[in-house]
Amino acid sequence: MKTHKDLNAWKNSIDLVIEIYRLTKAIPKEELFCLTVQLRRAAISVPSNISEGAARNQKKEFIRYLRISIGSLAEIETQILIARHLEYISEQEQINITGNINKIRSQIAGLIRNLEQRL
Questions:
Q1: Which of 35, 61, 83, 106 has the fewest Cβ atoms within 10 Å of its own Cβ atom?
Q2: Confidence (pTM)
């Protein structure tokens, strides 16, 4: 690995941030300081933790930050479910985001397995 920018998990999580920002524009203004902010912060946390962990140049630290990223993906998944139940987003939007979350989670899990094997 050259840098975190070479990781598909990082690239795809950047795309997820953009998707979350696009999606949250349609959420009612009264949710601005609650659901919208929570979703955006959790989304930004994913690529941020991947890049911070990679920059540490220690496998154990990188694994720790990758696990934090997985936690942020779980937050997004929960918040998207809430947004769907409140009818702020469509079922198709929920399906699309959940699919992207699952793909990124799988990529991060693969990175963790690879790093653990090299400890």
A1: 106
A2: 0.95
Q: Fill in the DSSP letter of residue 31.
A: G
How buried is 52 (Cβ within 10 angstroms: 0-12 exposed, 13-18 middle, 19+ buried)? middle
Q: How far apart are CA 10 and CA 116, in angstroms?
A: 19
Q: pLDDT by residue (tens digit) across 80-110?
A: 999 999 999 999 999 999 999 999 999 999 9
- The two three-digit tokens of residue 32, written as one number: 């601005």
Q: Which domains does the chain have, with CATH numbers?
A: 4-117 (1.20.1440.60)
Distance CA 101, CA 74 (A): 8
